Amino acid sequence: MAGTVRDYYAMLGVGRDATAEELKRAYRKLARELHPDVNPDQAAQDRFKEITAAYEVLSDPEKRRIVDLGGDPLSPNGGGGGAGSPFNGFGGFGDIFETFFGGGNGRGPRSRVRQGADALLRLELSLNEMAFGVKHEIAVETAVLCQTCSGDGCAPGTHPRTCPTCEGRGEIQSMQRSLLGPVMSSRPCPACGGTGEQIPSPCPTCAGDGRVRARRTITVDVPGGIEDGMRIRMSGQGEVGPGGGPAGDLYIEVTEQPHEVFTREGSDLHCTLALPMTAAALGTSLPLATLDSEEQVEIRPGTQPGAVITLRGRGVPRLRSSTRGDLHVHVDVRTPTKLDEAQEKLLRELAELRNEDVSVSSPRGGLFSKVRDVLHPR
């Protein structure tokens, strides 16, 4: 573009009477579309450099005046940065983008006071506690505010001082040469960690961190209906941040202990009820202790193995609801494994009354012979 006056207004897609706010909006819109982190295409990257140069020129009143007079403040002969590059004379196109959208090292010192980290604890509870809720005290060991220095990290009677290396700026700048000309780069000051301050006399209790580790007891309010693996968030109960910064959050992850009778699926409960075959055949009524009451389970005559009897609303309360799940009773019919002579005689008489053939000795009429004939017909 040597010898050609660039149209910086056209680069941003604005008119020559555009206000500072209109220039800013136009640049922000284009930068979001063309930034290399969003659009890695080389053409987009070249375009991004152009719009950044255009905004750098038009946002500077003196450079904009030169443009309005027909000159080019970034050209070798137009009062710009030399070498004909639209990017010479300022510290890299990333600087403007970071001003709008963040990223990079930023500008100015970084605060020593920072947000604390979140903490995670696991709490094992019984089925009843998870079903109906409980207040549970737990011991937590986290970083808390140092009481000696109140978080500023200095020994009593002392104060932080300005870092002599970066003179309080929090960063060190250096000039590097590139194909585009000299480029100014910044990095956090190694002497102060980017804060712009140094602590000459650290607090003897926290060694300048502004926080210490301590064990404390807190009460967790577990809501009824919570399920295995869910987490309870306790705002501001996590780690205090460096420099006495605000505490993060504490998360309590609950684990359900196995129950000796019931298994849980969401808000429903399941259990197994073992019955002798006579009770299943004749029918009966049996008491069953649920989580919070005693219910009568009605066994109808002729109940088969694997039958499921559902007790509505006798399961677990649903989380943040007034309703409850169901209790499903799975019937396990038990067949006796040993019979005395009298019991065997009674069962054979019953079989005869029901015309059921239980003989195993008949060559053609026994049960096993019938099965054999089905599998191996003659």
The total count of strands amounts to 15
What is the total domain count?
Answer: 4
Work out the helix count: 9
pLDDT averaged residue by residue: 83
* CATH fold-type name of the largest domain: Helix Hairpins
Largest sheet: 4 strands, mixed
For the terminal residues, how far apart are their CA atoms? 102 Å
CATH superfamily of the largest domain: DnaJ domain
SSE order: HHHHHEHEEEEEEEEEEHEEEEHH
Strand order of the largest sheet: 10-11-15-14
Helix and strand content put the structural class at alpha+beta
Instruction: Note the beta-strand portion.
Output: 25-35%
Structure description:
This protein is α+β, with helices and mostly antiparallel strands and 378 residues long. It has 4 domains: 8-101, Orthogonal Bundle (Helix Hairpins), CATH 1.10.287; 112-147 and 210-258, HSP40/DNAj peptide-binding domain; 263-334, HSP40/DNAj peptide-binding domain; 341-375, no CATH class. The protein is 23% helix and 26% strand. It is built from 9 helices and 15 strands. It has helices spanning 8-12, 20-34, 42-58, 61-68, 93-101, 127-132, 277-282, 341-353, 367-375, and strands at residues 119-125, 134-145, 161-162, 171-178, 181-188, 197-198, 211-222, 231-234, 250-256, 263-265, 268-276, 284-289, 294-299, 308-311, 327-334. Strands 10-11-15-14 form a 4-stranded mixed β-sheet. It has a 3-stranded mixed β-sheet with strand order 1-9-8. Strands 2-7 form a two-stranded antiparallel sheet. Helix 2 packs antiparallel against helix 3 and helix 3 (42-58) crosses helix 5. The chain is elongated, with a radius of gyration of 40 Å. Residues 78-106 and 361-375 have low confidence and may be disordered.
